[in-house]
Amino acid sequence: MCNLYSSYTTQEAMRRAFEVARDSAGNVPPLPAIFPDQMAPVVRMADGERELIQMRWGFPPPPKVGTQPVTNVRNVSSPFWRAWLKPQYRCLVPLTSFSEYKDTKPRKTRVWFALNKDRPLAAFAGIWRPWTGVRGTKAEPVEGEHLLYSFLTSEPNGVVGPIHPKAMPVILTTPEEYETWLTAPADVALKLQRPLPDEMLEIVAEGAKSDQPEVA
Questions:
Q1: Domain that holds residue 31
Q2: Confidence of residue 216 (pLDDT cuts 50, 70, 90)
Q3: In contact, 20 and 123? CB cutoff 8 Å
């Protein structure tokens, strides 16, 4: 389960990479570590154009599944998720790397994956929804209306599998894939729910709590 990723890039780079027409995100600094329930940038369709906006990571869980926000979605055939797979609720979640835990002793080790060591921008295949309730921490609860996002997972590829054999995030890397995910009918868009080819992903760091490209 991917519960930590990085979007260590500039707002302008996101606008260019995802052909954003409307920027409603406010000030978004480079984010070397994004955890569940934090605010982060996503790209959605709004009035026929792409909008960059900040949302909170994690859907409310299905009934009788606990209380923790759902950050990763695998079973897209479930009726609970089907409504949020319509084009108007799909989004792109910008990333430069993501982390999974290696099962080492005495404690697990974070392993960071990216397209390559330069950490170029890509996007998780995301979904979003409005929701009213309380989010945030016990110390700093945030009550009211929220925009929430999660993203799809698939079986892992040969790079992620040895570290995390259960799943990996669905990653989109081309303008054509971005357009398909944002606008195509569900049966077409969901063909993108597949692992990234092995040659398109590599391990770029281990052990770090956050990730950013090294500065020469």
A1: 5-206
A2: very low
A3: no
